[in-house]
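Per reviewer request, we include the raw input and output of the structure prediction for the construct analysed in the revised manuscript.
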Amino acid sequence: MNIPTTTLDVQGIRIPRLGFGTWELTGEECRTAVTAALDVGYRHIDTAQAYGNEAAVGAALRDASIPRDELFVTTKVWRDDARAEAVRRTTHESLGRLGLDHVDLLLLHWPVEEVPLEETLGAMVELMEQGLTRRIGVSNFTPTLLSEALRIAPIVANQVEHHPYLDQPELRAMARDRDVAIIAYSPLARGKVHEDETLRSLAQARGTTPEALTLRWLIGRPRVAAVPRSSNPEHIRSNFEALSLPLDDEADRRLREMAEGRRLIDPSFAPRWEHA
């Protein structure tokens, strides 16, 4: 298989296929990790209001002095703020913490049954029309919920848990058919790929790490990007090597065979999952 392109072209916007996630990174640790990621070459940075680290991410972005048009920055509206007024208010607050006049992608972090989706997405569309975000999307949406969101608004991405153990076939098929990006969070299955004997064997035979091999497999799939997280500079660097890693048919087949519907992120407020 060929080397993947470095960006996804979705609905007229380019999304870097390999981004840097910041979940559970806060304060100086977050700032240092984002700085290391930017130094290596990451240009897609993923954060969220609920992570409590937008200010640290913003500090790293300012330190790096990278031209704004070379960056792709995502943040997310938390589920408690799904009402229109709160969407508008918290997005302005996010921009203040990030030190930006706009983000590239604004996501609704989780579905919220108590608030009409039309209200939440309508406010997000208003923010897009005002230039405060280039595009809008959702996160943790099932196929049914994604179909509903696409009926309401120009959704460009659905960020979901996706790794070798959770294949997300129906969402990926929808992404291809509807020109939507699937952005894989927890793409390394919260570290489980490192200990997986199949992945370790495949990676060793190819002179790479289980993490880089897994990321290469994910970002080589149609309409899929990934946002791995690490605070270790060496791991940040080795993960980024996925962009230049070839993937042969045998490795692709064996990775596909690992799917078992294993979901690692399932809070009490999660929607009723439909497919794995």
